[in-house]
Specification:
Elements lengths: L13 E4 L5 E2 L5 E9 L9 E6 L5 E5 L5 E7 L2 E8 L5 E9 L3 E4 L2 E3 L7 E5 L12 E5 L1 H6 L17 E3 L14 E3 L8 E4 L2 E2 L18 E9 L12 E6 L7 E10 L7 H12 L9 E15 L3 E16 L4 E4 L1 H11 L5 H12 L5 H4 L1 E2 L7 E6 L7 E10 L3 E19 L2 E15 L13 E19 L2 E18 L1 H4 L2 H5 L2 E4 L15 E18 L2 E17 L7 E4 L8 H6 L8 E6 L3 E2 L2 E14 L4 E12 L10 E2 L22 E9 L11 E11 L5 H7 L6 E6 L9 H4 L12 E6 L6 E13 L3 E13 L5 E4 L9
Parallel strand pairs: 3-9, 3-10, 8-11, 15-18, 30-33, 38-42
Antiparallel strand pairs: 1-44, 2-9, 3-6, 4-5, 4-7, 7-8, 12-17, 13-14, 15-16, 17-18, 19-20, 20-21, 21-26, 22-25, 23-25, 24-25, 26-27, 27-28, 28-29, 29-31, 31-32, 32-35, 32-36, 33-34, 34-41, 36-37, 37-39, 39-40, 40-43, 42-45, 43-44
Helix pairs in contact: 3-4
């Protein structure tokens, strides 16, 4: 294991909470364990334990060991009835034991001397403490999802109600707007890992949630691991969040819902108030953006074959009806347009040709009859343009602040999921699940200018499919198997109307200095986005050997990715405001760039397709040393290839960076020793002041490697030597002439003086030491007190380095 260039960060926390806490495993099934004792506290060996699902009648059986302990792996999440039977003792039936997914649920039973056919029935407490390990996990239950408000409709939002989880909203937090962004115990948000039923749903490019689970009723539980996970889980120096889909039962159940959010109660914005009179004068009503957003759907589930075959489905539609009002922009007013039309009338001159081109970028000034001039008769600004056709050789081009009318906008999303569970026999359970989501926003004024003819949109689709099977070979051996496919796609691109505009797809971007007129032409950040196909094969064996409960398995993944890279591929003409022709508009009209004006263009890939391996193996051994003390040991190995190897020049060699040519090829070595040890314990004393068994002392430690994200390969693809940027410039008074033809003369020449932003060839993924020590205590009234000291020490290795290359001259440089 490599532990170099340590950047240590201690994150101590003392947490007092009544939140649920239990041990996490990658499985989305549950684990039930505990100890059976008599009324004196002595262990009851060979007691029979019958575990019955109250909703599906699924039955599991166990027998306590010599120390009274029992453990049952791979239990479907839900409410259970536990029946403990031992010769010479009253039977004890506990109802309402809630077995949560991905964690160990603890339940201890106390049997009194009596007849076996006498049954003492009790209601299980909801504040059970974790008696099995030192892992810190919060559980968001079905009841939480049903009763607590979810403004985003994403159940992961409730993770922020758990101890140690903090909402992160500041720019640069690491996950952008990818779903619910939070920090776990001070770790960066990009260190979080998100799952649905154990299947990865991370945004391959910038981390966070690539798929948003937006139907709260479609999910039964959310498990959030914040510290010291078992070896069954990895790829997260922060938190791991596993959202578990709801399943059918023997009772038919469902819901129908509709949520409305609209503009009726919204106040006018400051811009809308200022524009109110001008908009009204043009008869453009409404005077504030009006919209209605409806979100409606249903859930339904129940038996197909009682006690055997169950189905559950949910669907949700979001529809937005309304208009979007964008900000005001400086544009030529009627007088300014009239001045340029005088120039355009000089047929056969370069100035006329450029004036007509200028008009084309503004859709021939159609905005004059549809946009509202909010500055009235007084010009916002005026600019000199020296050109033939102007009175006395000089035109005064005036501008105003124009308000584009509220445009019809669509913002739709359709999401549904279907799950079928089948229990053909007590030893086998099979589940099949499919989730689909498709949404888009058009036009998207947040990512482009508001000039008609250049509008953009955003959207994409998600598909998640999974087949899972659990087979019980015997009381000591079982196997859990999952195969999954994750398809995520999200793209920022032009609308169909924009693609029909030749200036949007084949013309350069025009930048005019000395004013606030928006850039003309296409926004070359589009298209931009990513797609991902991730195929996962996961298998875990659960084995009990005496006091040992062993879980071992692998996670084999193949990731096929598509990254659309924004480049200045069409080129940009930047016109200076200084020169002989009065202004940057004047330089454009006369086909000069102006003093310090530039013509730039980038030659580089606009799409990169990395193919990566994401695999791991692990073994976890929970050893019941005594009925009161459990020791947790484990180790994990991750094999993650690096997406930056998907470009021709992936990395630089820091050992020879000053002597290598700029186009030296270095691949990134795949890490070969990313081993992650895990260690923990849980001690539940039954003597002295702790004789009631309602207190547990626990601790955990582990090393956790993060996954990579392909935003790094995008940075590589946009930088030399993968992308070659070239520019033309002259410091003459009017700069370069024939500006409209300059971009065609630029050829890509890789310069040794270019700046390179790249990763290093011995890059490894960041890793974190996580550890905790804590005490849990059951309290009356279904409360629980948890006090934890939580620490993490993070290391971030060799991410991005920027170098300026040079060629030595006369032995110096």
């Amino acid at each position: 294991m490599r532990f170099r260039n340590l950047l240590a960060t201690m994150v101590p926390a003392i947490v007092l909470s009544v939140a649920a806490s239990a041990g996490f495993a990658q499985t989305s099934q549950g684990i039930l364990s505990g100890v059976a004792r008599d009324s004196t506290g002595a262990a009851l060996p060979n007691a029979k334990v019958t575990i019955t699902n109250e909703e599906t009648k699924e039955i599991r059986n166990a027998v306590t060991r010599g120390d009274g302990a029992y453990r049952v792996d791979a239990i479907s999440p839900g409410r259970y009835t536990l029946l403990f039977e031992e010769q010479g003792f009253d039977s004890r039936k506990a109802t309402g034991v809630n077995v949560s997914p991905s964690v160990v649920t603890s339940y201890d039973a106390v049997l009194s001397i009596g007849k076996v056919n006498d049954v003492v029935e009790v209601k299980a407490v909801s504040n059970a403490i974790n008696l099995e390990n030192g892992q810190l996990t919060g559980i968001i239950s079905t009841n939480d999802l049903r009763e607590l408000p979810l403004f985003s409709l994403n159940p992961i939002e409730l993770a922020t109600t758990l101890p140690g989880i903090q909402v992160i909203t500041q720019p640069g937090s690491g996950a952008g707007a990818q779903g619910q962004v939070f920090s776990a115990n001070g770790a960066r948000p990009r260190a979080n890992n998100f799952l649905i039923d154990g299947q990865e749903i991370n945004d391959v490019a910038i981390a966070g949630q690539g798929f948003q689970p937006d139907i709260p009723g479609a999910y039964s539980t959310v498990a959030v691991l914040s510290n010291s996970a078992s070896a069954e889980f990895g790829r997260a120096g922060g938190a791991v969040t596993n959202v578990v889909t709801a399943r059918g039962s023997n009772a038919y159940h469902g819901s129908a819902f509709e949520r409305y959010t609209g503009s009726g109660l919204n106040a006018l914005t400051a811009t809308q108030r200022q524009s109110k009179a001008a908009l009204a004068a043009l008869g453009q009503i409404p005077q504030k953006t009006r919209f209605d957003r409806h979100t409606y759907g249903f859930t339904a589930g129940g038996p197909i074959i009682k006690d055997k075959l169950f189905a559950f489905g949910a669907s949700q539609w979001q529809r937005f009806f309304g208009r979007a009002l964008v900000g005001r922009q400086e544009l030529l007013d009627a007088n300014g347009v009239a001045q340029l039309k005088l120039i355009a009338a000089q047929t056969g001159t370069i100035q006329a040709s450029q004036a007509n081109l200028f008009a084309g970028y503004f859709s021939n000034y159609g905005y004059l009859s549809t946009f509202a001039n909010t500055t009235g008769a007084t010009p916002y600004n005026s600019y000199s343009v020296v050109s033939p056709g102007c009175p006395a050789g000089t035109c005064t081009v005036t501008t105003a602040l124009f308000q584009r009318p509220a445009e019809p906008q669509q913002n739709t999303d359709t999401q549904f999921n279907v799950r079928v569970d089948y229990t053909p026999r007590e030893k086998d359970t099979v589940s099949v699940r499919y989730i689909h989501d498709r949404g888009f926003l058009t036009p998207d004024f947040g990512n482009n200018g508001s000039l008609p003819g250049f509008d953009s949109q955003q959207g994409g689709y998600s598909e998640l499919a999974q087949v899972a099977e659990t087979h019980i070979f015997g009381p000591r051996l079982l196997n859990e198997f999952r195969v999954s496919e994750t398809r995520l796609n999200f793209l920022f691109k032009f609308t169909a109307q924009t693609l029909a505009n030749p200036l949007a797809t084949a013309s350069p971007t025009i930048s005019l200095a000395g004013n606030t007129i928006p850039n003309l032409g296409p926004n070359q950040n589009f298209p931009q986005g990513r797609g991902e196909d991730l195929y996962q094969l996961q298998d875990t064996i659960g084995l009990r050997l005496g006091r040992q409960s062993i879980r071992a398995g692998f996670d084999f993944g193949r990731q096929i990715e598509q990254e659309f890279v924004s480049q200045n591929a069409l080129g940009t003409l930047s016109y200076s405001a200084s020169g002989s022709y009065g202004s940057s508009i004047g330089e454009f009209i006369n086909n000069y760039l102006g003093t310090s004006g530039t013509a730039t263009k980038t030659f580089g890939p606009t799409r990169v397709d990395p193919h990566d391996w994401r695999s791991a193996g692990f073994i976890q051994d929970d050893i019941k040393l005594t009925s009161e003390l459990t020791l947790n040991t484990g180790i994990r190995y991750d094999y993650l290839t690096n997406s930056a190897n998907g470009v021709p020049y992936p990395a630089i060699n820091p050992a020879s960076v000053l002597t290598d040519p700029i186009n030296a090829v270095y691949k990134i070595a795949t890490p070969g020793m990313d081993f992650s040890p895990r260690l923990g314990f849980a001690f539940n004393p039954h003597e002295g002041i702790f004789h009631d068994g309602k207190t547990v002392f626990h601790a955990g430690f582990g090393v956790y490697y993060d996954s990579g994200f392909s935003n790094l390969v995008v940075n590589d693809a946009q930088s030399s030597p993968n992308a070659v940027a070239a520019s033309l410039q002259s410091t003459a008074k009017d700069g370069l002439a024939n500006s409209s033809t300059l971009l065609a003369t630029i050829t890509p020449v890789l310069s040794p003086l270019s700046s390179v932003q790249s990763v290093v060839n011995n890059m490894t993924y960041p890793y974190t030491y996580q550890y905790n020590f804590g005490i849990e205590r059951e309290l009356p009234f279904d409360l629980k007190l948890t006090t934890n000291y939580v620490g993490s020490r993070g290391v971030k290795l060799f991410v991005n380095r920027q170098y300026n290359y040079f060629t030595p001259t006369n032995g110096t440089g």
